[in-house]
UniProtKB/TrEMBL annotation:
InterPro entries: Aldolase_II/adducin_N (IPR001303), Aldolase_II/adducin_N_sf (IPR036409). SUPFAM superfamilies: AraD/HMP-PK domain-like. It comes from the Bacteria. Residues 29-209 form the Class II aldolase/adducin N-terminal domain. It comes from Rugamonas aquatica. This is Class II aldolase.
């Protein structure tokens, strides 16, 4: 049901408001904006990121596992009971389950509560490469074009929502929330305002990637070389390969889609020997040779791997990076909500 429906109704404890052309216009603007940024891999990677808008006591939020790029081709937003979420937030209940309005078979985003916490009408959460390249460093200090706050890394969902709520109580005017090793949240009165803030932020944080190393041709038989020149740099460039071995677990989406460890091999012979010994891998990094994957690797995982390259390629030589700890990895990989999102993604 679109927010411009002819009559308001209450379904599943959720009031859907009928506001005619104004809400139809807001929906169309958000759909168009999401489709545009969703097509830019430096901003959105596959099913990553989410967006929302508020309409009275209803909030429309991206469904888990759907792609922002498809906003104008598919109904990717789920209406949830915003009043119910705000009541829970008011008493510090960050484990509250979003109440979706009747009629949608999709689940609201894992990060729905994050959107409810932001007071602005339109909220965007992205894993934008130019921003991530700074958020994975321990010394981030801005700059930003609007009031902002910083939130240390927390598992997405209730833990992260609680941390964001605490920071917003201290800085209620924040329009930008930086999430360590995760991404950025931007709020605005409409999609145009959010876009202007994002554009200014990207201009502040833009970094030139390192020059690529020449590629080689290789055939590993068991796996297929990934046809992305940037991804291939992870194995071909010794600087990136070293970081890959030591700084793999940078961001939650990266870990959820690609695993807690990278399968690295010093050369082709080492890879072939490991395969002969029964090692199984869907993704292999062979130093100086290339990056290979099985036929079922998929677009969603490829998008996450390309994002990882884009972030590493923007790191100054010798810059320290913050990686997720073993306990943080364990809680991400043993989580039903993320298993659902993986099943929905392609």
């Amino acid at each position: 049901m679109r927010p411009g429906a002819q009559a308001a109704r209450t379904a599943g404890g959720c009031a859907l408001n009928a506001r005619g052309d104004r809400q139809d216009g807001l929906r169309a603007a958000v759909d168009a904006y999401c489709a545009r940024i969703g097509a830019d891999p430096l901003l959105v990677q596959g099913a990553g990121g989410n967006a929302s808008w508020k309409d009275g006591d209803t909030m429309w939020v991206k469904a888990s596992g759907t792609w922002l790029a498809e906003a104008q081709r598919a109904d990717i937003f789920v209406p949830v009971d915003l009043a119910h979420l705000r009541d829970a937030i008011a008493v510090g209940d960050f484990d509250v389950a979003p109440r979706a309005c009747a009629g949608s078979a999709l689940r609201p985003s894992i990060e729905t509560l994050m959107h409810a916490l932001m007071p602005q009408t339109v909220v965007l959460h992205l894993h934008a490469v130019e921003v991530l390249a700074h958020l994975v460093r321990p010394d981030f200090a801005g700059p930003a074009p609007a009031p902002w706050c910083w939130v240390d890394y927390h598992k997405p969902g209730s833990a992260l929502a609680g941390a964001i709520a605490a920071r917003l109580r201290e800085q209620p005017d924040a329009q930008i929330v930086f999430l360590q090793n995760h991404g950025v949240v931007i709020g605005g009165a409409n999609a145009a305002e959010v876009d202007a803030t994002l554009a200014a932020l990207l201009a502040c944080l833009r970094t030139e990637p390192v020059a690529p190393v020449a590629a080689v041709t290789a055939d590993m038989a068991q796996l297929t070389i990934i046809p992305d020149a940037g991804i291939q740099q992870l194995a071909l460039d010794p600087r990136l390969y070293k970081r890959l071995r030591n700084e793999w677990a940078l961001c939650p989406d990266h870990v959820v889609f690609l695993g807690a460890e990278a399968a690295c091999y010093a050369d082709a012979d080492s890879f072939i020997a490991a395969q002969a010994a029964g090692a199984e891998t869907s993704l292999a990094f062979i130093a100086g040779v290339g990056v290979f994957a099985d036929k079922d690797f998929g677009a969603a995982r490829t998008a996450q791997l390309r994002c990882y390259y884009d972030v590493l390629a923007r790191q100054p030589s010798g810059a320290a990076l913050t990686v997720l700890s073993a306990p943080q990895l364990a809680e991400l990989l043993d989580w039903d909500a993320e298993r659902y999102r993986l099943a929905m993604a392609r």
